[in-house]
Specification:
Length: about 550
């Protein structure tokens, strides 16, 4: 354990700094006297000041900048405030505000955070990783910034994404912030404005592609395994083709997953399982129609089919439960334009021209939108769906809100209040026939933080589909009957820490049962998971020895 810094160095260490909350005794013992205003505040009082300042900012980008500077100054206070106001602050530290922050990254840049590995680091990636200051690493979140949210190629500006994701790991699941490394793999950008921007912080060059790109990725992944042994790699916001290729290449070799594909899939699977608790249908009774056949939609279908196989269906039978419509129409055999991740879902039948025709012909029980085509779930489409089924499932997942395939109010109104609804973007409650229906949000933050904590708890050597099923089942099981009654398919965000702990415990237990854990099994897995969870209370630096004290202090 390194010695505790003193004086101004202590105030400048965000992980240790307590600001005005240093006690009189600490100020004397640690050379702080005179470096702080005289009055000592509690963390709760400091938090009150932060929340007041946060709310007084003119817009969300200013709120983002304010929270980022707090994180750089006093990490525990940052997490105290974010955890206590998650519903209000999650949209600022993550989507949608983080998208705007990424667009403006070079212009709002204050202080570096995370690691930059670039196309120029070929042959020396290990050395770069060795510059990371923390002794132990549990999670590496890496992006190459090519498909940032719905904003496309943002090059090195994409660094805001792994930073935001890691903040959510801590805020939602209590992963110790010291264990996470945000990585920007800067291979260039094709975005003309960035290349022309004199303040752009990344490599001002076109993207590395093909064999050179693959070689850099390979060197990076191998270096992570050497320098941060056992660390989980989360791939984030890569372009669809690379996202699938990287997942395919690494998932069976090391602990790795892709949140855009698998995290989305698990949260949607949880929504389907919760829906099943209301409709009485088993997963194998569902017929799923996906509108859109990109990374999100096929990722969901891959996890749903693997859950169906787990229930005893063959791979072929499971795939036949899923239908897809994309810009070119229904995915059917004989279409020459299908990508590898789409082929197994091609059905042996003639095509259909549009969504309404597909609903009328296929009579799906589940309609999932991941098309980015706002308003595509029209009144005739939803009315047709609701005519065939008492409790149709309608999940318009496209973001942002303007891209949502329908609103919550439309889904409820056109299905006469019978839709089981969850969306990608948040919608407020809807009054229907004297009932108040509260739409769920299929937020990936319900899954990935708990998954990461579980992998760390067991030091799991792989992240398997079975772990994502378990995460989905665990999440769905936590929705109370009263919440289901109101239309909710996920637990409230205020309960996300408990949900993450339950997911982490299930994932870690599974890792031990399946021989995937690389640390001895504790007698009580849940207590072990709980003991790993970061809490933002300040430690006391005097009395019990002046070390880097943790939770117990
Ligand atoms: P993508 O670009 O890989 O796929 C989009 C798909 O929609 C393509 O197959 C395209 O052919 C199809 N499409 C576009 N316009 C269409 C039209 N008019 N008719 C039929 N098909 C059409 O995008 P990706 O990554 O799959 O994301 C899709 C949407 O899902 C985005 O808005 C994204 O924000 C959202 N999403 C939501 C998540 C969540 O709620 N948890 C997680 C991940 C993605």
């Amino acid at each position: 354990m390194p010695p505790l810094p003193r004086g101004i160095d202590l105030l400048h260490d965000p992980r240790l700094n307590k600001g005005t909350a240093f006690t009189e005794a600490e100020r004397d013992a640690l050379g702080l006297r005179g470096l702080l205003p005289p009055r000592v505040f509690t963390q709760a009082q400091q938090a009150q000041r932060v929340v007041e300042s946060f709310r007084s900012k003119p817009d969300d980008l200013e709120r983002y900048i304010y929270l980022t500077s707090l994180q750089d100054r006093n990490e525990r206070l940052f997490y105290r405030v974010v955890m206590d106001h998650l519903e209000e602050m999650m949209p600022v530290i993550y989507t949608p505000t983080v998208g705007e922050a990424c667009l403006r990254f070079a212009h709002i840049f204050r202080r570096p955070r995370g690691l930059y590995v670039t196309a120029q680091d070929r042959g020396r990636v290990r050395q770069v990783l060795r510059n990371w200051p923390e002794p132990e690493v549990g999670i590496v979140v890496v992006t190459d910034g090519e498909r940032v949210l719905g904003l496309g190629d943002l090059g090195a500006n994409g660094m805001g994404i792994p930073i935001g994701k890691l903040s959510l790991y801590t805020a939602c699941a209590g992963v110790d912030p010291a264990l996470g490394v945000p990585v920007m793999l800067d291979v260039g950008t094709e975005r003309a404005e960035l290349l022309a921007d004199p303040l752009y912080l990344g490599l001002p060059q076109h993207r590395l592609r093909g064999a050179e790109y693959d070689a850099l990725l390979d060197e990076f992944v191998t270096a992570v395994q050497d320098v941060f042994p056992g660390a989980l790699i989360q791939f984030e916001d890569f372009a669809t083709e690379n996202a699938f290729a990287l997942l395919g290449r690494y998932r069976d070799r090391l602990p790795a997953f892709n949140d855009d594909i698998q995290g989305t899939a698990a949260v949607v699977l949880a929504g389907l399982l919760s829906s099943g608790r209301v409709s009485g249908r088993r997963l194998q009774d569902e017929t799923l129609l996906f509108f859109g056949a990109g990374a999100a939609a096929t990722g969901i279908a891959d996890l749903v089919t693997s859950a169906l196989e787990h229930e005893g269906l063959t791979a072929g039978e499971a795939a036949q439960r899923c239908w897809f419509l994309d810009r070119q129409g229904l995915l059917v055999r004989g279409r020459g334009d299908l990508a590898p991740h789409q082929r197994r879902y091609a059905h042996d039948r003639p095509g259909l021209p549009g969504l309404l025709e597909a609903v009328l012909e296929l009579k799906p029980t589940v309609l999932i939108g991941a098309s980015t085509e706002g308003g595509a779930f029209t009144e005739p489409v939803i009315r047709a769906l609701a005519r065939f089924h008492q409790r149709p499932v309608i999940f318009p997942l496209s973001n942002p809100t303007s891209r949502s395939e329908c609103t919550a109010a439309q889904a409820y109104r056109w299905s006469e209040g019978r839709a089981l609804f969850a969306s990608g973007s948040p919608f407020g409650p809807v009054e229907w026939n004297g009932r108040r229906l509260t739409p769920g949000q299929a937020n990936n933050a319900y899954i990935f933080p708990g998954m990461g904590l579980g992998v760390i708890a067991a030091r799991a050597s792989r992240v398997t589909d079975a772990m994502f099923h378990l995460a989905a089942r665990t999440l769905a099981g936590l929705v109370s009957p009263a919440a289901l009654e109101q239309g909710l398919l996920f637990p409230p965000l205020g309960e996300i820490r408990e949900a993450s702990r339950a997911i982490a415990t299930a994932v870690a237990r599974h890792a031990w049962e399946e021989g995937l854990a690389r640390r001895p099994r504790p007698s009580d897995v849940e207590a072990h998971v709980r003991s790993l969870m970061y809490r933002p209370e300040y430690p006391s630096y005097v009395g019990a020895g002046l070390g880097r004290l943790t939770e117990s202090a």
